[in-house]
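In keeping with the milestone schedule agreed at the kick-off meeting, the structural modelling team has produced records for the first pair of proteins. Each record is given below as a sequence line and a structure-token line. The laboratory manager (R.T.) confirmed that both were archived under the project's standard naming scheme.
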Amino acid sequence: MSDRLKTSFAGIAFKNPVVLASGTCGFGRELNEYFDIERLGGLCSKGLLEHPVAGNDGIRIWETASGIMNSVGLENPGIDAFVEKDLNWINGKDLVNIVNLGGHSMEDYISGAEKLNKVQLDLVELNISCPNVKAGGMNFGTKTEVAREIVREIRGICKHKLVVKLSPNAENIVSLAGMCEEEGADGVSLTNTFLGMAIDLKKKAPVFHNVYAGLSGPAIKPIALRMVHQVAHSVSIPVMGLGGITTWQDAVEFIMAGATVIQVGTATFMKPDISMDIIEGMEKYLEENGYESIDEIRGII
């Protein structure tokens, strides 16, 4: 590979702009058995909370037309177990280590951020799309001024570069991104899953115990692309674009729409090494079209 795909995000160097999305790659060990994960630009860990969480009961994954729905419920081993078992392994790889931090309350986020302050990593991806249990189940990330409180708090204590992961279910995602910039975030990533529903006709009941679940996959790509375009052209901080990226063509579209880095998620379930196809396709596209750097096509639309 040439240097055409080299990318800088918030001052951090990526060998290419392809990152595995949180919740779809674990901590990288399993996928490393299918391909060399050091060929990736970066890896975003499964969402971590301060303490272990068992996740949701019942069905967690449900296939849909051109996508999947999930209601995993932030199952994770907790930050301490991650630091003990996986952090050094990831840090030993030649890729950008992005750690996704979630929480069910302000206290959860603060204590999690404080623990992550003590370890080496490259970026914290702050997931504000988690249910805020103490606020009656409302997501932190749907209302700009509610989200402002947590972004301000975490930015004030987080010693790492901070990227805020935005929910497409927000009332105004452009306003939300602008707030993140105002509060000092180093970047934003979007979009998370879209809120959807599935019904089991035999049981005459919702498929998921929580009734609603997150929709991802190719079905959401045009909407996610639109949101990335809107946000990238409204803020000056860099954007990680994700949502239904399955091919190198999809990835190039997100870069042209203004994304600095892209994340691949659901497509990994279709083909574990699909990110390698995307990297190779992007490289070939740039070469065939006479571009020396991917920077030349970023945000051109």
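The second protein of the pair:
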Amino acid sequence: MKILLATHNKHKLSELLAILPQSTERGEAIEYLSFADFPDIAEPEETGLTLQENAAIKARCGLENTGLISIADDTGLMVDVLNGAPGVFSARYADPNKADYEANNKKLLKELSAYKGAQRSAHFSTVAALAAPNKKIIFTQGKVEGFIIEDYKGTNGFGYDPLFFVAEAGKTMAEMSKEEKNKISHRFRAFKQMSEIIKKL
């Protein structure tokens, strides 16, 4: 069975491949492809106003362009004192036309410069979507609570990971090993549920 992971993001792809099952319950092997295997397919514009809408847009794009069962996700960092921002715009928070991790982090720190401690509470949320021929899109969701620290800690991960402190782990996402992160992350929680759906396909 071939399944398309509808992303060009190498960091995300690496995380997903460490989570998703290698075979179905019947023992059928699963081969995962990504948009990198289909260079003519442009990743669609994320015009949705929610994580669910954007995940569906990307999954549907994969299915329509390849005919393969396609899985996509959208992830947002929601900071309470910023009324849920950057939220659905997390990847392009600093620049609507370009994803830039460093610029996004700098903007976030600037926006939170007047707030301290518990005022910097936040959560990460991931919505995963699976699109298959002649079926309704299936969604799963994962969430992890934490807060935004005042300076970078850790060198692992990507995106907002060096700034997002996970209370239950006592460290930032970027201070965790890949194995630690995959046990508690929002993406892990969404795709662990998705894994059970994939096994039954």
